[in-house]
Amino acid sequence: METKKFTRKELAERNSRADAVFINENLVYDVTEFLDEHPGGHEVLLSVAGKDATEKYQRVGHSHAAKEQMKKYLIGELVDEDKTIVKKINDNQTVVETPAESSSFTSSWKFLALLGIIMTVFYTYLFG
Ligand code: HEM
Where is the chain membrane-spanning (predicted)? Predict the structure, then answer.
C-alpha cells in the first residue's frame, strides 16, 4: 500500500494537462502521462482532474485489464481526515459518503438536549 498522503485541498489544484490527478476510493492517481493514452479520452480524465472520481469511475465499469493498468498510476492516498466512506451497491455503482460531520457531538440532538437542560437550570438559578 502506498503511504504518501494528500489532502483534497492540495489535489484540487492539480487539475491541468500538465498535472492531472484524481481520487478513486480514497486512493490518488496521477494520470498526467496517461491522458493521451486513455481509451476513454483525455476529456473525461481532465473533467475529474483534481477531484474525487469514485462515482464516475465506477459507473464506467472498467475492465479487469483497465483496473490492473490503473495500479501503475497510483501515487498515494488521502489523509485520514479527508477520506470518504465508499459503499459498493454493485459492481458498477458506488456511493461516496463524506464521514458525516453531522454525527459529531456538537451538532447531534443529544448535544442540543443537553444544552437545553443546562440553559434551563442556569435561568432558573439566575432568575428563579
Ligand atoms: C488510471 C486510471 C484509468 C485507467 C488505467 C483507465 C483505463 C481505461 C481503459 C483500458 C478503457 C477501455 C475500456 C476498458 O478496458 O474498460 C477505459 C475506458 C473509459 N474510461 Fe477509463 N481509465 C482510467 C480512469 C478513468 C476515469 C477516472 C474515468 C472517468 C471518471 C474514466 C472513464 C472512462 C470512459 C468514459 C471510458 C470509455 C468507456 C466506453 O467507451 O464505453 N476512466 N479506461
Answer: 111-127
Domain boundaries defined on the chain? 5-97, 100-128
Average pLDDT over residues 88-111: 71
Contact 20, 14 (CB under 8 A): yes
**How is domain 5-97 classified at the CATH fold level?**
Flavocytochrome B2; Chain A, domain 1 (3.10.120)
CA dihedral 85, 89, 91, 97 (to 10 degrees): -20
Pocket of ligand 1 (CB under 6 A): 22, 29, 31, 34, 38-40, 44-45, 48, 53, 56-57, 60, 62-63, 65-66, 69-70, 73
In total, the chain counts a number of residues equal to 128
Q: Are 51 and 15 in contact (CB under 8 A)?
A: yes
CA of 25 to the centre of ligand 1 (A): 15
In 3D, which of 25, 58, 60 has the Cα closest to residue 40?
Answer: 60
- Per-residue cell: 90: 454493485
**Do the beta carbons of residue 39 and residue 110 sit within 8 Å?**
no
